[in-house]
Design brief:
The protein contains 14 helices and 5 strands. It is globular and about 80 Å long. It starts with 10 loop residues before the first helix and ends with a helix. 46% of the residues lie in helices and 7% in strands. The protein has one domain: Rossmann fold. With 332 residues, the chain is α/β, with parallel strands linked by helices. Strands 2-1-3-4-5 form a 5-stranded parallel β-sheet, sandwiched between helices.
Length: 332
């Protein structure tokens, strides 16, 4: 005898699902409330690591009166300029936004867009290997931990890689900082290095390394000698440059590019690539090329720890060249 299956009661299951959904919703609300309470306790003034200098740079960017010279790029600008001397010689307030090449060209340009004012000059100096549009998601997450408001500088295509893949770790970092549990990897060794927030001056230049012996030598000078055709700007990176150039044109802002510092042999090894980069930049609307790569070749002793980071002497040499070139733009 074949028995028919008994009817299945679903009303209880539906109630269970509703209870489960309600618990999930309450859990998410509770987590959100905890997060916002922690944010209320969070004091960015306690941050001491290198990337936390972004807080002070943005404060200066918003508070400094024009006309301004805004330096945009990676750590070659942090290590390699004397903004006080630029300010004195050019008669413009200077804001050095240079921090880390790993932030990528899109993020760097987006950082300064909302702050642009008529009469400003933006001086871009990007490490050659970042013109391809590459960036380090970890660097951006670290920036967002110390300055969550910078999330608005992300491009849409970066959200998945930066936030969705590492967002919980970033939120955890913010929570630990709010509770005072965050520690700096390396401890005292890091605090004694040049790579600290306190190592920057009020213009945004890193100066802590000026009194330290350099570590640049034969082992590091070989970096970058191979030809890198993939550095030439294409796609999103080129679109970001064009969009920024067009914005500057509409806003009465000068957009200028200056070459980063290089060793002669590294530049020679990448001459074709660097030439192609400059050719691409010449097609960007409203972007003026200030100098040529050969004008920013420096000797080994002028580099601190990498082929982009200048010593105090190197920074002064570079600054003197920038002043002469920028003064030349004002000549009739």
């Amino acid at each position: 005898m074949i028995r028919r299956p008994s009817s299945i009661k679903t009303s209880g299951d539906g109630g269970s699902m509703r209870k489960f959904g309600l618990k999930c919703a309450l859990f998410m609300i509770l987590q959100g409330l905890i997060f916002f309470v922690l944010m209320a306790w969070y004091d960015p003034g306690r941050e001491s690591n290198y990337l936390a200098a972004t807080i002070d740079k943005h404060d200066r960017l918003s508070e400094t009166k024009g006309p301004r010279l805004i330096l945009v790029g990676g750590s070659n600008l942090a290590f390699g300029t004397d903004a006080a001397e630029l300010e004195r010689a050019l008669g413009r307030s200077v804001v050095n936004m240079g921090l880390a090449a790993g932030l990528g060209i899109e993020f760097m340009l987006n950082e300064v867009k909302p702050a642009l004012r008529p009469g400003d000059r933006v001086l871009l100096s990007l490490e050659y290997d970042r013109f391809s549009g590459g960036y380090n998601p970890l660097n951006i997450r670290q920036i967002l931990e110390v300055r969550p408001a910078s999330v608005r500088y992300l491009e849409g295509h970066q959200w998945n890689r930066v936030l969705l893949r590492g967002g919980w770790a970033m939120i955890g970092g913010i929570g630990r900082r709010a509770l005072g549990w965050q520690t700096v990897p390396g401890g005292d060794a890091v605090e004694l290095s040049a790579y600290t927030r306190s190592g920057f001056n009020r213009w945004g230049d890193l100066v802590a390394h000026h009194s330290m012996p350099g570590t640049f030598g034969a082992g590091t000078s070989a970096v970058g000698r191979a030809e890198h055709a993939d550095w030439v700007p294409t796609g999103r990176a080129l679109d970001a440059l064009r969009s920024f150039g067009e914005l500057c044109g509409r806003s009465g802002v000068e957009f200028i590019y200056t070459c980063p510092p290089q060793l002669r042999d590294i530049l020679e090894s990448n001459r074709a690539t660097v030439g192609a980069i400059l050719e691409a930049l010449e097609q960007v609307p409203n972007l003026r090329i200030l100098d040529r790569p050969e004008e920013h070749v420096y000797e080994d002793q002028h580099f601190f720890d990498t082929g982009y980071h200048l010593t105090r002497t190197g920074a002064r040499l570079r600054t003197a060249k920038l002043i002469r070139a920028l003064e030349g733009l004002d000549q009739p």
